[in-house]
């Protein structure tokens, strides 16, 4: 395969707004660790998987990687490359090359007494959203063994900020003294929540978010091939704004809504966010107890993101600006902005920022939601 054909193939695999980042890569002189950071839902994981494949490609032509023809690429595409190690939550494994996790990881069994937390949510389900400590320890310890195919070995970790402190410290030791031919591809949605010591030992690569026109164009192209997915252009634009301009997050949202899988995490988050918006649009009349009860099963970080975007639009409207995330609620937002007490709104904003710093902590989500929504109600009271 010549380099021009391969470049065209890679261009089809990658989101166009990430193509410049790909073009700047020098696979022949790649650093031992890179930290790719940027907003969730813009295609970082897909980009990194393609990058890992290129680093493991055994083609002698460096400009034609990944070639999709060599044994390394075939192993990778089957999901069984022995030198590709991934540390991702169970909820993200569907995005990896198929077959990588066909066999359940042999983890210690938990007693029934420890399977339910204070929210009534199974602890096992919560762990599916996090990177297992056992898997992290096993992966890091396994780096002492040489690569199976005699070339590079790639370990991909996403989201990096989901590592427990003990796992992060173990990773740090490997970054300080990286094993031979081992490349770390680390991904983070929130760079501010990555340990400074880890950041300092990686080459930082910022993954950009597309502008609105480019993002919507990409979405329309993907949706044009899904004839059974019926959705209006106005709805697509509305969800695009609600998701903060993250095209992959929008596409996943639309597919989840179409499949109507009530157990799908994204479907639960979408339904909860919609209910939360309806509740917050009531201002001082919000039934915050009911809102917390109806939305508590969704991922806490997603609920916080919804509240933060709503509060951001309120602040913008209070200063005579236009809403960025929820333009279809512009009338309600402007009306609420006139009723809001700006000092209280700013304190609520600071509370949301503080909550996001600890959004993955195993605390009782419902209690935290009740406290935040109660504070939100007070924004509109003297």
What does this structure look like?
By secondary structure, this protein is α/β, with parallel strands linked by helices. The protein has two domains: 204 residues, 3-Layer(aba) Sandwich (Rossmann fold); 118 residues, Zinc Finger, Delta Prime, domain 3 (Up-down Bundle), CATH 1.20.272.10. It contains 17 helices and five strands. It has a five-stranded parallel β-sheet, with helices on both faces. Helix 12 runs parallel beside helix 14 and helix 14 crosses helix 15. The chain is globular, with a radius of gyration of 22 Å. The termini are far apart. The N terminus is likely disordered.
Concise description?
The protein has 382 residues and is of the alpha/beta class. It has helices at 3-13, 19-23, 44-56, 71-77, 123-127, 133-141, 165-176, 196-199, 212-224, 233-242, 247-259, 265-280, 288-295, 300-318, 330-339, 342-357, 365-378; strands at 33-37, 84-87, 153-157, 182-188, 203-206.
